[in-house]
Amino acid sequence: MLSDSDRTVRREMKCKLAIIGAGPSGLLLGQLLLRAGIDNVIIEKKSADYVQGRIRAGVLEQGTVDLLREAGAGRRIDDEGIVHRGLELVFGRCRDRIDLQGLTGDGAVTIYGQTEMTRDLMEAREASGGLSFYEAEDVRLHDVDGERPYVTFMHDSQPYRLSCDYIAGCDGYHGISRHCIPQDVLVEYERVYPFSWLGLLSDTPPVHHELVYVNHERGFALCSQRSASRSRYYLQVPPTDRLEEWPDSRFWAELKRRLPDKLSQRLVTGPALEKSITPLRSYVAEPMQYGKLFLVGDAAHIVPPTGAKGLNLAASDVGTLYRILKKAYQENRFDVVGRYSEIALRRVWKATRFSWFMTSLMHTFPSREEMAFERRMQQAEYDYYVNSSAGQKTIAENYVGLPHDLVD
Ligand code: FAS
Ligand code: PHB
């Protein structure tokens, strides 16, 4: 392996912000900053097709939609996004609608696949002439706690060096950025749940016009959608399950067993376009900045998808960092740069709490004798929240998304 000094560095570049990763965090941040005249370069290890093809989130908070529009990538979501003003919760024989609009004064969420959002942002960046390196190799961050941080990487077998003012680690949970924070500085909080989600995407009409979250004694199920003709379903499965144990026929039969009769009878099945198993964890790394490095999105935190917060939390980190860098470069307010972690973590922990709450409420935990009390507590928790206006309002205002923190 060549050391940095041994290489005959081919390309010296400079920008204000080096962005590691071209997922939703990196693309949204890059596009917002380009439009604010703050130049940036994105370095991504996978191909653009691979990044765009990842099937993931599907529910966007209004704050995320607003940022997409501000990034100049909101036209298609305005045309094709499906606005949802309510959702349903099912627990045993109880089926309750949460009136998102009525409980939050016109709040709502928009159904729009992460793949579509990624495509819109890639196209917007292309149109803005933003510089991106896909399929970059051996990406390394240097002097993140010094005055002149820089990134080195290989692209098309050529060595590059990118000097920058700041680095945004938008490289996800398995990225390299978080590991640049010294172990005696980084504090990690984690809860691994005793189950995973098996997801299936199909070109079948959704079983219901709104999302349905089910706590059935056999396990959690979620009925979501991407359009009037494309559905997304999830089943809680043991963490040891493998995809090959779940042929489509078994998935549909199990989903039917967990849905209320009326929905089960209406369910239209079809071949899986995609199937994946995702282990569930809550994870937060503090601080979310170190020297000239910022951690953004999944690089800093992971939430169980039960609260539909993962992508939206990444977007709110982006909004906070964007507002800070805009204030710094446009108003010479570099004093606010040091406040990113403090501001971002306030909302990260509240979204982590809600995602943990929804996961604890709606999943069945391994039923051992001593879990009998916990199951009764779960039922009482559900019964209280859906039958109390305060409880329903709590679920509604967290689900549509708490306000993004402003930077004063
Ligand atoms: P991402 O992980 O999306 O992007 C990080 C990018 O950095 C990737 O493109 C990666 O290739 C790149 N990268 C990594 N290491 C690098 C390196 N060394 N150099 C350069 N680039 C590097 N959220 C929901 O709200 N609802 C859901 O249903 C949902 N389902 C999910 C299912 C799965 C399987 C996963 C993994 C996540 C899911 N999420 C869901 C959460 C997900 O949507 C994330 O919150 C979202 O992708 C976060 O975006 P980023 O922070 O950009 O991280
Ligand atoms: C999805 O449509 O992928 C989805 C919706 C709601 C969630 C999680 C995933 O809570």
UniProtKB/TrEMBL annotation:
Q: Which GO terms describe its molecular function?
A: 4-hydroxybenzoate 3-monooxygenase activity
- Return the Gene3D superfamilies for the record: D-Amino Acid Oxidase, subunit A, domain 2 (3.30.9.10), FAD/NAD(P)-binding domain (3.50.50.60)
Entry keyword set: FAD, Flavoprotein, Oxidoreductase
Report the EC code(s) recorded for this entry.
1.14.13.2
Per UniProt, residues of the FAD-binding domain are: 15-355
Q: Which NCBIfam families match?
A: pbenz_hydroxyl, PRK08243.1
User: What is the protein name for this chain?
Assistant: 4-hydroxybenzoate 3-monooxygenase
